[in-house]
Amino acid sequence: MNIIYFLIGCSIVIAIIFLCAFFWAMNNGQNDDMHTPAMRILFEDEKPDRKIE
Amino acid sequence: MLAAPVKTGSQCYHCGNENPATTYTFDDKAFCCAGCQSVYQVLAAGNLCDYYAYNDNPGQTQKTNDQQFAYLDEEQIINDLVDYRDENIIKITFYIPAIHCSSCIWLLEHLYKLNNGIVHSRIDFLKKQVIVTFKQQEVSLRKVVEILNSIGYEPLISLQDIVKEKQGSVNRGLIKKIAVAGLCMGNVMLFSFPEYLGLSALEQNYKVLFGWLNLAFALPATFYSGRDFFTSAYSGLKNKSINLDAPLALIIAVLLLRTVFEICTQTGPGFSDTLTGLIFLLLIGRWVKQRSYYHLSFERDYRSYFPVAVTVLNNGNEKATAISELQIGHRILLRNNEIIPADSILMQSEAFFDFSFVTGESAPVKKVAGEIVYAGGRLSGQATELEIIKPVSQSYLTNLWNNETFTQTQTSKNFNDTIAQYFSAVSLAIAIAAATYWLTEHNTGKAWDSFTAVLIVACPCVLSLSTPFTLSAVLGIFDRNKFYLKNTDVVERLATVDTIVFDKTGTITQAESTGISFSGNLCEYEKRLIASLARNSAHPLSLELVKWINSDIFYPVSEYSEIPGNGIFGKVDDITVRLGSSIFVNNSGKINQDSSGVYVEINGEYKGHFNIGQHWRDGLNTLFHSLKRKTGMHLLSGDTETDRQSLYAIFPSPQQMYFKQSPQNKLDYIKQLQAKGKRVMMLGDGLNDAGALKQSDLGIAITDNINNFSPACDAILQGENLGRLARFRMMAKRAMLTVKLSFVISASYNLLGIYFAVQGLLSPLIAAVLMPLSTITIIAFTNACTRFFSAKLKLR
Fold first, then answer.
1. Chain B: nearest CA to A3, how far in angstroms?
2. Residue B687: CB partners within 8 Å, gap ≥ 6?
3. What is the pTM of this model?
4. Nearest residue on chain B to A51, judged by CA atoms?
5. Could you tell me if B33 and B86 lie in one domain?
6. What pLDDT is stored for residue B2 in this prediction?
7. CA distance B44 to chain A (A)
8. A1 vs chain B: nearest CA distance in angstroms?
């Protein structure tokens, strides 16, 4: 049963890594605009050859 | 490239407005005006026609578009506006009210195709702003703005830049605190489960470990996530008042102390689970409460209405000058539709000014040379020269902002803070009573147990959850009805107002009358004749007729004459045209003499008449009717008394109508009402109402377009929904009832908890179950109530 000490340690370390990742994303402004990226993804790719036609 | 007039009954390809009889065509596409067509041409030349692929008619009408951007060449103004600047690039955020669909995003993020100097542009859709980065050697700020203007996205540039004010409003801090609290709560729950389920003798050594781990998680939850409760409670106590955060801070402190005590002395598992759960839920409540409208500003003053700069004439040279640098004696040049920045003297023979936003006068005012014109008026007509006689901040209108009303911050106690005082007092009293009882029984352990347990259980956390959940749900309902409240406290104030003060122009009347119809027959040519004649008159009805006929071709007018109160006549294209009252034209008794409107006679022949619809807002009659029984109603207008008669018919308390009120009069009137103990709601739209809106207990700005300027207020209401005001207030009252009912429910949970607590029997398990249970009940209850009431009031 001593393995449980190791597992608890692992779980806390992983939780803290995720928390750090979340903090980084927040500070980076990734959650400031939740709306525009969802619309932006629907745009078609550029068609570079259109001008030549 | 020339636009040829073509007959179609279609929609404008650019803006989707109905095309006039003569449209502009380009590339086989029909446009309603030259503006829309030129936007299309710019986009076509830049190979950006995908703009039209994502949405049908994504543009905005370009009919009213004449802007001067010369001031954007001034170094000082540029430096005030930009976010970042070095020798190569400039980064600037523009607020563009026209942003409304995915085509807008697509186009504005492809600005680099229109000019190579633009490096990057990125939209924030909800905030309606675009951040543009450009190389300042290749393109000037003025050019960038002109490009935006040319494609129909004119940025709103004002002295009080609402874009920058909003930047700090995203509460990243609160989200981070919620994340930490959530993480702590999750882990504490995990480590507490063995305790709930009962540990066998074999596993007892884990108990100590789990206890210490729980304590370790409780610390960041308290000191990082829960810090605001302590600071808020402390600042409240410093001002000698108890707010809702005071009992919450006390409970958090007691929970932590007792947990530390139990873990250190190994006497129990502590209350880490309740503590972290409580902080997490409280923070969620705070987050729900923070509902912000990124595209609206409730704090605007005259600075965001006034232009950034005006043209100053200096020995015949024009120079754009920032408004703050205007001095007495400066000679300025004002163009059509520009706003007078400071009180000045008119230097040219005559000019018309639209003061509707400043004084409430609906008709344009004619001023002659040497007359004083007040700041805030909008020039309509030819460019004219003015000489400044007062600095911007000391002018007739702007002086209002020097009033003490604008320097005080009103704080009114809300329901929660009032309850919090009694709550804290009662729970402390019970806790002390329980402790004293056990002390007299010489049971110190039980005394300590019961004292802390009572405080824990009597937590008013439900209050701090039910209020934000209920009120923010109400805000959401109002939002769908185009009624935007500044924050949840406004709902409470809306529920308690007993007196309503209306402004007239723009508030209960529509800024633009749409109810024009013609009875009779007119051909296109005759319509143009009428428009050509009416164009010469500054009478509001003439202006509306010109707008309604919407012609681009005008004929020369000779022998023009205007008879005040009757009508106008003149020779248009050598045909005599008369417009005016029924007596004024020769109608040969064909129509009812009583009916009002503009009658038309062309070449001596009666043609019919224009019906000018009532320009009161929709639903005004029903609103007055439903309010009149229980609410005092007053009307303050800056306008002349011309509408007094027609208002008599609909306004329920005609003796409380006052005309020719200055902005200061309005403010003082509200103060008087408040001195009589009334709780006053003010409805207004213009700068002349700004003082009254600020002074009132609840100031609502009425607007036809929420992106346009509205003065500082507590709420913004779209004019079309003014008729629903009575229902909005009823909804607010019901919401406050819901909050009070939920308080009763939570109090009964608390009593149940206190029953265990005073006996010193409160186990961590009971506390941990009781708190989420009551929370879920309350949230479900408030949700059901708001849905029920809003459906009943038909607010969807």
1. 12
2. B302, B305, B357, B358, B376, B397, B400, B663, B711
3. 0.78
4. B47
5. no
6. 41
7. 11
8. 10
Q: What is the DSSP code string of B664-700?
A: HHHHHHHHHHHHTT--EEEEE-SGGGHHHHHHSSEEE
Domain containing residue B26: 6-54
Taking one residue from A and the other from B, the number of pairs with CB-CB distance under 8 angstroms is 52
* Binary contact (A26, B172; C-beta < 8 A): yes
Query: Is the Cβ–Cβ distance between B516 and B614 less than 8 Å?
Result: no
Choose one of B391, B406, B421: the last residue of a domain.
B406
Identify all chain A residues contacting B54, using CB atoms and an 8 Å cutoff.
42-43
- Mark which of B406, B429, B456 sits at the end of a domain: B406
Q: Which residue's entry shows tokens 């009832």? A: B737
CATH code of the domain containing B324: 2.70.150.10
Q: What is the CATH number of the domain that holds B530?
A: 3.40.1110.10
Looking at the complex, does the CB of residue A31 fall below 8 Å from at least one CB of chain B?
Answer: yes
β-pairing verdict for B575-580 and B680-684: unpaired
Q: Is residue B552 part of a domain?
A: yes
In chain A, whose CA is at the least distance from the CA of B186?
A15
**CA B440 and chain centroid, separation:** 60
Rounded Cα distance between B468 and B733, Å, is 15
Per-residue pLDDT of B184-230, as tens digits, reads 999 999 888 888 877 677 677 788 888 999 999 999 999 999 999 99
CATH number at residue B79: 3.30.70.100
Is pLDDT at B56 greater than 70 in this prediction? Answer: yes
A24 touches chain B (CB under 8 A): no
- How distant is the Cα of A26 from the closest Cα of chain B, in angstroms? 7
Give the CA distances from residue B762 to residues B267, B278, B441, B455, B468, in Å, rounded to whole numbers and listed in that order.
14, 17, 19, 11, 29
Which residue in chain A has the smallest CA separation from B102?
A: A39
- Measured CA to CA in angstroms, residue B273 lies from B222, B259, B359, B468, B650 at distances of 12, 10, 61, 23, 61
Contacts of B126 in chain A (CB under 8 A): 33, 35-36
Q: What confidence tier does B256 reach under pLDDT thresholds 50, 70, 90?
A: very high
Spatial separation of the C-alpha atoms in residues B614 and B592, rounded to whole Å: 18
The answer to whether position B617 is within a domain reads no
pLDDT score of B119 more than 70: yes
pLDDT tens track for B360-417:
666 677 788 888 888 888 887 778 888 888 888 777 777 777 776 666 655 566 777 7
Going by DSSP bridges, is the β-strand pair B309-314/B129-135 parallel, antiparallel, or unpaired? unpaired
Contact in structure between B106 and B50 (CB atoms under 8 Å): yes
Do B35 and B120 fall into the same domain?
no
Cβ–Cβ gap A39/B206 under 8 Å:
no
Is B123 in Cβ contact with A19 (below 8 Å)? no
Q: What is the predicted ipTM?
A: 0.87
Pick among B112, B121, B125, B203 to test the A interface (most A CBs inside 10 A): B125
| Alpha carbon distances (Å) from B783 to B434, B469, B486, B779, B789 | 36, 8, 21, 6, 10
Distance, in Å, from the CA atom of B723 to the CA atom of B706, rounded to the nearest integer, reads 17
| B577 within some domain | yes
Q: Cα–Cα distance between B353 and B374 in angstroms, integer?
A: 10
User: Are the Cβ atoms of A12 and B187 closer than 8 angstroms?
Assistant: yes
Instruction: Report whether B23 contacts B30 (CB < 8 A).
Output: yes
Closest residue on chain B to A43 (Cα)? B106
Assigned domain for B523 exists: yes
Q: Do B183 and A36 touch (CB under 8 A)?
A: no
Overall domain count for chain B:
4
Count of beta carbons in the 10 Å neighbourhood of residue B556:
9
Q: What is the per-residue pLDDT for B462?
A: 77
Tell me, yes or no, if A7 comes closer than 8 A to chain B by beta carbon: no
Distance from CA of B7 to the nearest CA of A (A): 32
Decide if B179 touches A, using CB distance below 8 A.
yes
